[in-house]
Each structure stands twice: as structure tokens, then as C-alpha cells.
Design brief:
The chain has 289 residues and is an alpha/beta fold. It has 3 domains: 5-84 and 267-287, Rossmann fold, CATH 3.40.50.11950; 110-175, 2-Layer Sandwich (Dna Ligase, domain 1), CATH 3.30.1490.20; 180-260, ATP-grasp fold, B domain (D-amino Acid Aminotransferase, Chain A, domain 1, 2-Layer Sandwich), CATH 3.30.470. 37% of the residues lie in helices and 22% in strands. It is built from 10 helices and 12 strands. The chain has helices at 20-36, 46-50, 66-77, 86-91, 94-103, 121-126, 153-165, 198-201, 222-236, 268-287; strands spanning 5-9, 40-44, 58-61, 81-83, 111-115, 132-136, 147-150, 170-175, 180-187, 193-196, 240-247, 253-260. It has a 4-stranded parallel β-sheet, sandwiched between helices. The protein has a 4-stranded antiparallel β-sheet with strand order 5-8-6-7, with helices on both faces. Strands 10-9-11-12 form a 4-stranded antiparallel β-sheet. It is globular.
């Protein structure tokens, strides 16, 4: 019988917009890698986890539902090993992420955090922000409209009103940045790091990558990119991460988003062993406490 018992919790489909298959695939690949290493992995859906299915004291998860996150945090507080941390997952919601990254000195767009029933045109004018992105601030993205690009201040006000009518109470407004859009993936404490231009690979959830258009391949410091991505993930408290970065025409790098456990679609076969080895390392530390 295996000495290492793990509960694996998959991501609910509502939190895998346009990526249900990709999220399921990477999770299954990691579970397969862990089983090859002698672990016994019992896989639960997020609903089963929320509804009280028995769990081990080692939990590897892709959860994003608010009730799941609260349960993960309680289990962590009681001594369980949880990868990714429920606290880290919560930190990847837009308002918390914005506050943490700006407060940690991570390069991040100028932003406003607002109530959705506010009048924002004057605030945007004061900040000299026209083109911008409105993002729901309270939870992870479920719908295309949860992240919306707008071309001027009045349009921003109209989209904010739509958020309010949908019952969303808080929003983050990020200044739109010109430059090449890069996606990146990383695993804390490992040498795995993968980045690519999503426009060129046709990698997209909603087609928003087209707004920045075809990349110019402006030069930038690769090591600095890796450094700020790792620093951002560390500030948020997530170990398995991915996100988006803008490369300015002068080589300036700015993180615009960071997510807990993304799909790793372009590199999932390569990354799965890294995630499993990382998990085994954390499990060894946990068992030797």
C-alpha cells in the first residue's frame, strides 16, 4: 500500500471558461505523474470537495470557488499541506492581486479600485486614463465580460454599470499598456519557466490578445522577466502559476495578470513532471516536520 495518500481536487467548469478540457488535461497528467511515483491519489470534483467528501492531509488542487477556497484555508490552518495554498488562490482575485503587487513593488499597471456604483469619469480623467481594462474585483473570472477592454472613459462608466447590474460590487481598472503581450508559466523553486507570444500561437480564451496585436518582438531581459514573475508569484503565495506580461517598446516589463495553476496548454506534457516533483518535495518536507 502506498505510504503517500493525496486528495486531488479538480477545478469546477464554471472557473475554466473556454478551457475546461485544458484544465482537466493538465490536472490528469499531474495525477498520473504522482501515481507513477507511488502515490495514491483520490480525485474529487470541486463540488464533492465542497460537499464534505473525505480528504487526506495532503491536497493538490485547482480550486477557485469561494467555498472551496475557505475550506482549503481551514485545512491549511489545521496542518494540512495544500498546493496551491487557499490563501494564494484567494490572493489571485483581482482586487487583492492589485493591492499586493502594487504594494510589493512589482511592475504593474496604474490602477483604480472602485465600487461598481461609483461615478468614475472624473477619476479616470484625473489619472489621465482613457483606454483601460475593467475587471471584476471580487472573484476569479467566470465569463468573458468579467474582463472588458474599453476605449474611453464614458465606455468605462457604462461597463462598470453593467457590472453593478450583474451584482458585482467591486472592480479594478487597469491602464491599457502598449507593447507585446507575453504569456508565462512557472513553478516555484524549480528551473521551469515557459513564455510565449499568444497572438502567434493562437492561444486565447476570448480573443483579447488581438487588442495588442501582432508582436514586434521588442528586445527585453529574459532573466528580469523570470525574476519579476517569480517575485509576483511569491508575493501572492502561489507555487504553480501563470500570467500575462506586456513588453514595452523600450523593453520595459509589466505584469498585468497572474493566475494560480493555469492550463499550461502549450507545454503541459513538459511541465507535468515538474509539478509532480515539486509536490513530492513539499510532501517530504511536510512529512518530516
Amino acid at each position: 500500500m502506498s505510504e503517500i495518500k493525496i486528495t486531488g481536487v479538480m477545478r469546477a467548469g464554471a472557473y475554466s471558461p473556454n478551457h475546461i478540457g485544458n484544465d482537466t488535461t493538465i490536472f490528469n497528467l499531474v495525477v498520473e505523474q504522482l501515481r507513477k511515483r507511488g502515490c495514491e491519489v483520490n480525485v474529487l470534483s470541486e463540488d464533492e470537495f465542497i460537499n464534505g467528501a473525505p480528504t487526506c492531509d495532503i491536497i493538490i488542487n485547482m480550486c477557485r470557488e469561494a467555498r472551496s477556497i475557505s475550506l482549503l484555508q481551514r485545512l491549511e490552518d489545521n496542518g494540512c499541506l495544500v498546493i496551491n495554498s487557499g490563501y494564494g488562490i484567494e490572493n489571485c482575485t483581482r482586487e487583492r492581486m492589485t493591492r499586493i503587487l502594487l504594494g510589493s513593488g512589482i511592475p504593474y499597471p496604474e490602477s483604480l479600485i472602485v465600487n461598481t456604483d461609483e461615478a468614475i469619469v472624473a477619476s479616470l480623467a484625473k489619472a489621465k486614463i482613457d483606454r483601460c481594462w475593467l475587471k471584476r474585483g471580487d472573484m476569479h473570472t467566470q465569463h468573458r465580460e468579467d474582463v472588458t477592454y474599453v476605449r474611453h472613459r464614458q465606455e468605462a462608466q457604462e461597463v462598470l454599470q453593467e457590472f453593478f447590474l450583474r451584482g458585482i460590487k467591486r472592480a479594478v481598472i487597469n491602464r491599457h499598456l502598449e507593447g507585446d503581450l507575453l504569456k508565462f508559466y512557472g513553478i516555484a523553486g524549480t528551473d521551469f519557466f515557459y513564455r510565449f507570444y499568444p497572438f502567434e500561437q493562437g492561444h486565447s480564451k476570448y480573443g483579447d490578445e488581438a487588442i495588442n496585436g501582432k508582436p514586434h518582438h521588442d528586445a527585453f531581459d529574459e532573466e528580469h522577466l523570470r525574476s519579476i514573475c517569480n517575485a509576483a508569484a511569491d508575493a501572492l503565495g502561489v507555487d504553480i502559476y501563470g500570467g500575462d506580461c506586456i513588453v514595452g517598446h523600450d523593453g520595459t516589463l509589466t505584469i498585468i495578470d497572474l493566475n494560480d495553476w493555469p492550463s499550461f496548454a502549450p507545454c503541459r506534457n513538459e511541465v507535468a513532471p515538474y509539478i509532480a516533483r515539486f509536490a513530492m518535495h513539499r510532501i517530504k518536507i511536510h512529512q518530516n516536520r
